Structure formats: structure tokens, C-alpha cells
Amino acid sequence: MRLLKALGHFHELRFVLLPRFPLWRTQACLILLVCTNVLLFFPALAAAQDEPISDNENVYESLLRPTFESYCGKCHGVDGVEEGDVNLMELGGAPIGSDVDLLSELIEVLDLGEMPPEGEPDLKPEKRERLVFELKKILKVEVQKLSIYDQAPIRRMNRFQYNNAVIDLLDLKCIVFTLPERMMREHKLYFKPASGKMPDVVTVGNRPLGKSQMIERRLAGVAAFPQDLRAEHGFDNRGDHLSMSPLLMEAFLKLGQSITQSPDFVQRNIGIWKTFFEPPKTKDQWKSSIGLRLKPFLTRAFRSPVTSEVLDRYLKFADAQIDQGAEYTDVMKALTAAVISSPRFFYLYDKVSQTEASSSVDEFELASRMSFFLWGSVPDQTLLDLAIRGELSAPAVLIEQYERMIKDKKIKRFCDSFPSQWLQLERIISSVPNQELFSQFYFSKYRDSMHMLLEPLLLFETVLIENLPITQLVDSDFTYRSNRLQNSYTEFGASPLKGNKGGGAVGVLTFHRVPVTDRRTGGVITNAAVMTMTSGPDRTQPITRGAWVAGVIFNNPPKPPPADVPPLADKPAGEESGLTLRERLGLHRERSDCKGCHEQIDPLGFALENYSPVGGWREGYANGREIDSAGVLFRKHRFNDVVEFKDAILVEKDRFTRGFAEHLLSFALAREIGAADQLALDRIVEATANDDYKIQALIKHVILSKPFQNKTTPK
Length: 715
What we know:
about 5% strand; 30 helices; about 725 residues; four-stranded antiparallel β-sheet; single chain; two-stranded antiparallel ribbon; mainly alpha
């Protein structure tokens, strides 16, 4: 605590956090939103029509009232029915206010075919498309009028970012502390992004292998703070989940001190030792050298120029320590401990604008956004130098730096954090299929999941390094498999791997690049890892699988089920014993409050029903009934099997691109995606399509987008 007092107050945080809560999406509310928002935004809508209508009254009588009666009135007005206490028949033509969030939600449910619910009169495709088109034009007008994006929340670094930042700041030759959330361990340095090519054979390890895989060169005596929780349908860098309690603040102080006091904190492990920690040749140079060394160190640690006031605070402490007889290296260690324990270091935030509610981020904020997005760490000196000169924000320079960063080995950190969270792969760690039913899943004291989870991660790394179209993530023509994993795909025509006899060794695992000859495999959707982690111990869970596809592939997760809905029993009883799983769930979805979501996710889940709880292929159930995987995607693409399901998704690849871009933008900005982001996402999708859907182009256009380059100051 004496150290903290010597340094004075860390800094003032002048922010008002404005928490955002997701919209409550019920079918009844969505029907209401369709009607009321068309009414609300009609002036802009009328201006966009080929044959504009002159006033609201005519619009109501010619367009809205018939729409209400045909599609909404059953629940909201006809015969006195008022779900949600709303009678649309009484609204008339009076405007009721503006809300871009509701408008954005409306566009989404219309575009995805979620409204009106199945069983009710449906909008004709041309009418639905026209409504979406016109409402997007309205949204554009309203967003441009507001010119405000959701605030990037003030947040602390998560422990993955903290580990990376300390490594980069000190040029550590080891990690700070063990990170179990890093699901894949690189062996033999296969990851070389500058080459633009993944090797045909890679050697990797992972978390399920046990403690041996968690042993990495690290600083002895340094314990990590608790693992950060991943936001529901989000990432572990989300500001609304990265709070700072007094206990955690104290933990950060102790953490900084334990790092510099570690017995491994010595010259061989610290790249900046000679230029920062090693004393000058003569003692009379000590005090002057500290200022020269400390200023660039603080600039990098705090990601912005350091004021003389802040610098003086540290220098006064250093001078006092030297006057008391402290050794130079010990003083620099104490200063380092204070720096990496300071809120200026571990808090991420945008500076408050004194004049504008919305403005461009400054050069240093832009450097931080790029580095934490791609590298999960503080900016390097190149980014900082460009920011100091005011050159980074120039589009040509920004693109040049992006291309440099995407080829740097530190992009591995992006691969270590984004794809595993995007795909929700942490769920496979706890997958325990029934050992009696699926004995092939278990070997020795291990499980096939240790092999399974590496396949989609290696696929993602390859798509990124080789700059392939993101459609490869849906339906790839190649994959990476170990011998054991390849053997589990033999029923899909997979041939045994040559030169990889074991494949199940528990030290490291060898994976080979192999062509995908059967489209029932390939991509992340039909990956054995996904099929296993979205199943229960005894049976598949098509609703869970459908929710995964909706959330991960299209970024349209369903709302949680009502609390009073009982789960479907693993084993059918009585009259249900002769039913298929689809038939049993059909009984389950009869409730009106369940129907809407089931219409959304059921076709997505049953498309994958031919895959067993461990990812194997099956034609029927144990009771002899044949599996029915047919369905309709977005109410317009019929499919009979999983291959046709993939084809339907590829037809809708712009929807997949948009969902993937939303995930990337949310990860980059550490917040939810809001209505104001929708126009930027439209431009990102269009630009990515023009670049043949290449993944590096998509990431580039996220960085070039207005939400990424702008900030909002809370009122």
C-alpha cells in the first residue's frame, strides 16, 4: 500500500456507464412492432415509395389498417383481443414516437421470416421484401440523423489480454501465468501467417489432455486472477462482464508485485532488461536515466502520451527510493509493478469528448482498438509512432498496418480467443456421452473430444492464414484430422492416414490436412465437436443444435425458454416410445409461448438429426423409425438432407457473412451490436462480397467501418 500512496491517485474516471439490455422478443411484441413502426416511420416510408401517399391518414387506411386486420388483428384488436395490452385497431394514423432499436429489430424478424408466426397468414415474398427494403431506407435516414453509435464500455483487460500486454510491454520470453481458456497449444512453431500457407502436417496439444499440456514456461510464483466469464451469445472481453471489485483491485496490485518479484524475473526472460532494468555505468546517472527510460515505457503501457504530472508522480517515488539506498534494478521493478497495477494500464476506455456526443476516435484510441482486436494486447511501437505523428487514421496507412498485423505471429492470439468463443467450444469440455452407448468415444483415460475440438480451430486458422472465403467455414473442401479422428469419420468415406499410426498419444497430437470428399463433413456446422457438444449423454438435442446454428452462424440466438416449460425426457415413456424425436418435440411446441422460437430453430436442428450424439452418421432411431431431416430455411429454401441444408446456407451466404461480421464487430468493440451499427454492417457485407468473401477482407472492412472508428460520449 505504501507504493500506491507514493504514486498518489491513479486517475479520475469520468464516465457514466449506460447499460443496455437486450430486447424482449416475443412473437406478440414483434407483431406489434411491425405494425407500430410502419405507422411511426411512415413519413420516410412514403417518401421512398414509387407512388408516395400524401398523408398519414391515407397511409393508415390504404396500407396499415388492412395489414393490421390481416396479420396482426387476431392478437391485437379484433374481437377485443389485446395481447400485451395493445389494440392496434385503435391506433389510427397518429405517430407514436421514434425508436431505431425497434426498427432494426423489426427489419431482422421480417428479413428472417420470423414474423408472422407459422400457422398465421403469411406475408407474400414480394410484400415482405418491399417492407424490408423500405424499412432499411427509413433506418438509414434515422441513423444518419442521430449519428451516434453505442458506447464502447469502459472495461478492464480480461486475463488473456493482461497476460499478452505484460508479455509485450516487457518483451517476456515466457508467459505470465497459465491460461486454461487457450484451448489449443502450438508445437513445433507451425503457425507462420507471413507465409500465407498452413503446413500439411501440424503438431498440437490441448486442454483436455490434462496438466501436462498446461505446463508452459511461465513466471514462477505468479497466480492468475479468476477466469473471465463469457457473455451469453458474446465474448469474454465484453465490458458489461468485466467489472472491478475492491478485492479484484487488490488482486491486481498483488499480481503486479508478484510478477516483478518472481525468481524468473531475470535478464534471460526479460527482453528489455538491458535498456530498462540494468543500471547505468555510474550512479550519478541513475536519476536522470529513469526519466528517459520511463517516459516511453509509460507511453506504451498507457497507450497515449504521458502528462508531466503523471510522469513526475513516478519520478518522485523513484528519487525517494534511491535516496533511501535502494538499488537501481529494484527501483525499476517497483515502478514496473506500479505501472502494470495501475488502472491506466488495465482499464480500456475512450476519452471523453467535451464538445461532441459522437466523434472519431483519436489516433491512440484507434491504435488500441486495432491492437486489442487483432493481438489482444497493447499497441506496438510502430502503431504508437504513427499515432504520435497523426498518420494512423489515414485509410492507406490504416490498411497497410492491418496487413502488417495480420501477417504478424501475434495474430495467433486472435486465433486463440475469437474462434473458440464464437463456436462456443468450451462446451465440449463437459461433454460426457453415455459410455455404454458410445464406448468408441473413450480410450485409455481420455475422450475423443480432445481430438474433436482441434479440427474446427485448425480449419479457422487455415482459412485466416491462407485468406480463404469464409464460406469454407460452412462447407470446406479440406480439414485437419488426427489418425484417431479420421477413423471416426470412416463411415463418411475417410481413408486411414498414412504415417500416423498412433494419433492418440497424450503428449502432442499430429494432425494432417486431408481433402473432404463427403459434404456431410467439412466446415464447422457438421463437425464432430459441434455435434457432440450440442447433444446430451444419451440422445441428440435438435433444439440445442438449432439454437447453436441460429446464434453462431446467423447471430440470431433465440430467447430463453419459459421457466415453466419442462425439459424433454431423455428416454420416451408410454405412448411416446414409438415416436420419432421430431414427433415428440412437436407435442412440446404446442404452447403458444414456445411456438415462435421453435419455428425458428427446429428446422436448423433437425437438419442435423442424422448425426449421432458423438457425430457419427445414422439413418434411423433405435425404435426403427427413419430420421426426417427435411425442413425450410427462412421459409423459402426447402431442403431434404444436410447437404441441401448447407446449399441453402450458401445461397444465403450474405446472411452468414453479416452474422459473422456482427460477431467480429462485437468482439472488436467489446459490446453488443446496436441499431446504429446496421448500416455499417450492410456496407461491410457488400464490400466483403466484392472481395470474394475473403476472411481477411472481412476483417479489414470491420476495421474501416464507422462503428470501429467512432466513439460516443455518454451524456
